[in-house]
Description:
The protein has helices at about 5-30, 40-50, 55-60, 80-105, 115-145, 150-180, 190-220. The chain is mainly alpha-helical and about 220 residues long. The longest helix has about 35 residues, at about 150-180.
Amino acid sequence: MTVPGWLSTLAIISLVSGVICALVILADILAGRRQHMWIMNMVWPITTLYSGPIGLWFYLRAGRASRHHKHSTAEQPSTDWKRVALAATHCGSGCTLGDLIVEGSLAFIPLSLFGHEIFAAWALDFIAAVLFGIVFQYFTIVPMRNLSPMQGFISAFKADILSLSVWQIGMYGWMALTTFVLFGHELEKSRPTFWFMMQIAMLAGFLTSLPVNWWLIRTGIKHPM
């Protein structure tokens, strides 16, 4: 299937929108609205790279910090859905960063597995997602619970491995649908359409990870943000 012109245009608009929203949040943070947990200063801009205006709205609603206090001036995430969404977003930022690095690198150094580049990408995506996801969770759990480095690593692994695995499954599901059903071939990573599909894949991962994050918070394995 040839990519229609309107889809390429929509892809460019979506990608530019994501970057603009990320820069808006980054500028807001640098202007003095730094998060209580420093890792969230990275999480919010990364989140809007794929969620665009939706992520910006959520930041303003539940994540924006005061200039003078290390608290959110927006409505606090006291309800379950906000806590769960924040946890999913935190997990997803590690997945997103890993996927960006891997997929961007494979655009220049293509690899294949079982005759398909997408399978090699998925394998490397998962490894990168685990590494970045655990790092992001580590720097949240350790200061929050005052844990030792080893305790922090174990807790971060337990809190994030299931969440990020389900996230990646949602992402893989959408990319498999676009590759083998909608288009019938692998999309070129140098094209805006591929990255637009990746944005949608991240949103799919976010949705599939919500039930797991709800369960992790409810059972106390994962600390609410």
